[in-house]
Amino acid sequence: MKVSIDEIETNGLRCPDSKISFKNRSNGGVINLLQMPNGTGKTTIIKLISASLTGAINKWSPDEVRSFKAKSDDSINGEFRITLSLETNSVKQLTFLTRFNFVDGEANIYTTRGAIGEEQGWLPPSELKQFFSEGCVDVFCFQGDKTKDIIDESKSDAEITIKAFFGFDEIEGFIGDIKKYHRDTIETGTPITSANLKAKEMQAKSWETRALVLKEDYDEKLLEKIDVDKEVEELLNSQRQIIEALDGTSEQETLDREYSKRNTKVITTANECWGDLKNPLLISSDLLANLYVFRDSLEKMKLPGGSRSFFEELIRENDGCICGEELTDSRIKHIQKQIEQYLGDDEANVVNAIKNEISDTYENLKDSNSLGDDFTSLNNALVDRANAFKDKEDYLKKMKKLATPKNQKIFEDYGLVVERQTKLNNLLEQRVKDSVVESSQLNNPDSCKSYIAAENVADKLFEEAGLISDKQGISESYTILKKVINGAKHKSLLEIKEKLAVKTNEKLIESLPSGSQIEVLEIEQHVKLGWNGVTQSEGSGAQNIIIAYSFARSVLEEANIEFPLIVDHPFTQIDRKNRINLGSTLGSLMHQFIGFLIDTERSGFLEGVADQTDVSYISMFSSEIDGNKSFIDKIETLPSNEFLKTANGYITYNKEFFIENEMGDH
Amino acid sequence: MFRLHNNARKWGNDLVKGDSGPINIEFDLYYIFLLVGLGLEKKIPLEQSLSSEIVRNYPKSYLSQKYKIAMLLLYTDLKESGFDLSNRDIVKSKIQETFSANSQNHLTDDAGKLLNNYANGGFEAIRERMQRAETDGALFISIIYDEFFPDLFQ
């Protein structure tokens, strides 16, 4: 199925009242570029698109609902409508309309599906419901710096996406249901032995409660983490701005670049060392020499020597000895005694393979000191990196000293918030750790800090309780069913990840400039990048974006569904050359691309897309902001059928207007 | 087949999860422990109940080393047991105890357990000198190289 966005309409919200039509066509890709000055409501629109598709609006608090109210508008109501076209054999329309009541802080969704009229509620067609989850929508609706989340090792975005798209969330829900059924059933059981069933159930319950408490804490801390991460980012930006005002950007950038260069060198050299270390025969020249002597000794001892199976066959066939004599009983006994000295074919094959490997390594590498040389380089690289880090730290200290007392506090706050962030990350990690609970700890659930571990213990104890009750059969079936489902789930997840890694790499070859040394090494919880087996935490700005888009395309393709790619600030952190390249390939990436961009992202990118025929250039701005006066003057000179004026804004699809008027900060 | 003491897994958890350097999977950690254990001829029995299997067979990136690791185990254990390396009967019997072409890892079950005991010995040797694992993988292997490698297989 192909899903496209036809239109969005906003009224009375924190963005100009408007109706925006997006281009789409049945074959090939279409690029929709929407430029809006900063502060006009780009983020609001993307948030509303995402929340309409996932139905998250239904869960918004009154304050969250009110945060969408137009600042300068006294109206108490607002509306957001998104119309999608769903294409299989025929094209159907699906509309989600959200009506806002800002007085009561309420937002209600209404759905219109094809010929069926408007119905209250978030009611996507059943075949799309699975894909309209947060995990799925996030992969094609990029908000903020989402592109980097896919490759961020501390995040699980890639796995969350895969689980959402390929039905793993439903499987987990199903496991939860059978778990609940099992536990409820066990509680109604009676003991079949003298074992204390009640005590076992109580113990299981106490672990179940502990798991719930820890899970609640985990969810709370996860929300806290969103705020802390934001705070870290804001303080880091403020710190950078303070330094920029004090000393310009060059020194800071040079030190950052230098550190990054040194760090890359450390990683590369460490990987070279590791590559050598993986040949255990190279870790000591004495060892290699001794093993070679031992190999010679095996030769001298005729090990593995002749084939034991040859003589065994000779006896079995009893067709006379190879010397032509008859195989008498005494001769057979003699041979049987002698063949004990020989190894069987299996062991002989292994010994021969080992002897060959020792010979090869000895003859080719006996004089090599590559391991020693590599580790010398690694030690040098580590020293260089430590020095570069110290330079950065010293510079920060120097800048802090030069800053005003108020700004010095920002440096201090940044340090404190980073510390808080680290503690929070450690705690979150602890909460989900699949740790082993020792039997001595079974009576002390409070000692467990992981809700996953506590839940596993609870499950095991319920199973044990089931086995000593008359519900034994249910427990046994539950154990088998759970094992089968989990096994299949685990295997399928690995297979899908492997497939997606291959697919993403195929797309990277299509989209990255030839000779680019970056690929997906594997997909774990994040997309792991590197080149020739050597890992690297991220690529350049452009590479990261292309990787995120390629991963998204691979997931959608594999799930046999197409969605538009919606991106806020698609081309920040990309240099001009790469913007040209990205612009020229964008049309082939997705069937419908919707990018919300500002002036600083245009250079290069617009040249890149210039040759593509299907580009829609949309400009939208508020008429209530003084800074937009020049845009108003210019748009009013266009023929009246080329722009739309609403109560508080303007919108036009005129390409020249888009090209000539750069919209960013006022 | 490849098991680590739960304490060893806990000890190296941050190192394996670290965002840089070559130690990326638990088997990388196992391998370092094993090299040190074999090199120092130090083995400590691994209790089944206090350990867990980290992986059943060699990970892909170690497959090409399986014969060499098997050989190192044979050689080290013969030496550690004080046997004469030129005694054919002893060597032959040890080969039979150690190698199995039917197993994917080319080791018998007993040899697998022995290998785990050496990895456990290596872990304890490292932990004696490094109470907490260095979380930077590059720094970790550099420290291991400087601190342990001069003494291995001497």
Task: Spell out the blueprint of helices and strands.
The complex is a heterodimer of chains A (666) and B (154).
Chain A lengths: L1 E10 L6 E4 L8 E6 L6 H13 L7 H5 L10 E11 L3 E11 L4 E8 L4 E3 L5 H4 L4 H7 E2 L3 H4 L7 H9 L2 H20 L9 H51 L2 H28 L7 H16 L7 H10 L11 H11 L5 H21 L4 H33 L2 H27 L19 H17 L4 H40 L7 E5 L3 E5 L2 E3 L4 H18 L6 E4 L7 H14 L2 E6 L7 H5 L5 E8 L6 H7 L7 E3 L3 E4 L2 H6 L6
Parallel strand pairs in A: 3-13, 3-14, 8-12, 12-13
Antiparallel strand pairs in A: 1-2, 1-4, 4-5, 5-6, 6-7, 9-10, 10-11, 14-16, 15-16
Helix pairs in contact in A: 4-6, 7-16, 7-17, 8-14, 8-15, 8-16, 9-14, 10-13, 11-12, 16-17, 17-18, 18-19
Chain B lengths: L1 E4 H12 L8 H14 L11 E5 L10 H15 L7 H11 L10 H21 L7 H12 L6
Antiparallel strand pairs in B: 1-2
Helix pairs in contact in B: 2-5, 3-4
Report on this structure.
Helix content of chain A is 55%, strand content 14%. By secondary structure, chain A is an alpha+beta fold. In chain A, the strands form three sheets. Chain A has a seven-stranded mixed β-sheet with strand order 8-12-13-3-14-16-15, sandwiched between helices. Chain A has 22 helices and 16 strands. Chain A has helices at residues 42-54, 62-66, 126-129, 134-140, 146-149, 157-165, 168-187, 197-247, 250-277, 285-300, 308-317, 329-339, 345-365, 370-402, 405-431, 451-467, 472-511, 541-558, 576-589, 605-609, 629-635, 655-660, and strands at 2-11, 18-21, 30-35, 77-87, 91-101, 106-113, 118-120, 141-142, 519-523, 527-531, 534-536, 565-568, 592-597, 615-622, 643-645, 649-652. Chain B has 154 residues and is mainly alpha-helical. Chain B is built from six helices and two strands, in the order βααβαααα. Chain B has helices at residues 6-17, 26-39, 66-80, 88-98, 109-129, 137-148, and strands spanning 2-5, 51-55. In chain B, helix 2 crosses helix 5 (109-129) and helix 3 packs across helix 4 (88-98). At the A-B interface, helix 9, helix 10, helix 13 and helix 14 of A face helix 2, helix 3, helix 4 and helix 6 of B.
